[in-house]
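Format notes (please read before filing issues)

Several people have asked whether sequences and structure tokens are stored in separate files. They are not. Every record keeps both together, in the order shown below: the sequence lines, then the token lines. Line labels are part of the format and must not be stripped during preprocessing.
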Amino acid sequence: MRLVDLRQLNTRQLSPLLEEEARTWREELHWDYRFSVELIKKFLDTHSLAGSAVLENGQPVGYGFYVTEEQKGLLGGLFVSPAHAQTQLGEQLLREIIETLRGIPQVRRIEVQLMPFGSALGEVLAGLRFRLYMRQFMLLPLAERPAANGPAALAGLRLERWQDRHMIPCAELIHLAYADHIDGEINDQYRSQAGAAKFLKNIVLLPGCGQFEEQASFVVRDELSGHLAGVVLTSIVAKGVGHTTQLCVLPGYRGRGLGGHLMRASVEALRRLKATELSLTVTSNNSNAMKLYEALGFNAVKSFVAAVWKE
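Then the structure lines:
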């Protein structure tokens, strides 16, 4: 086994491993990872994908890549073939990438989410002085459940289907909703309005998390002030599979059932679109969100580690 710079490899060499990774995402998480694979291949073709690969007998059996944004480094992906020593090789790749990122002068923060590895590399990250957060990947089987009856209309609040004009006020909503929230520690884009706007652009205008589905995305507006009080955003990540990319409610409006109201609206819209499943991720310590999703019928199918290092 030996580690090499990912930019030394080409698409032909890495394709079998990428295809195996896509199968893993589909089987475990019901997620069509093929678009991400095609994007990775484009960067491989130009030898511009920064990261490392581990070779056995000259063939890639694992790889990881990273990106940098101003003062932040992000682990973009990490995968090792199940036919090999996943945890051991994953640790080698992870250590190599973290060491590289820490060697970049402007990087002051590193964010890592290890969905394919679950919690197997948590101790490694803790030893590298990362702060760890457990998260859950949850799944709701829409076809097997009767249609949920939504609550009565909420006094003074109006449910609206998503439109592009909601982008700017929604960025402000997300920024305010995550002030002093644990998810703001995991994803620093939530910590500023500019960061929230970048997050929204990635999931609404760009295919950063599946194909955005505006028919199953909604906002709740305060009829008196005109301000947005909550939002649910939904993407399609595989045929018949939706994914909740964002659900948040302003602090002053919490405790009134808005989260459940928004989720039920999204669920019913997905059923009309003939979707059969809805997935989401949630931080385990976010107890209110966990209770809501469990009450709606979501089941946790995979636990995984999110981790943050700050200089």
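For reference, the curators noted about this record: The chain has two domains: 2-129, 140-302. The longest strand covers residues 299-310.
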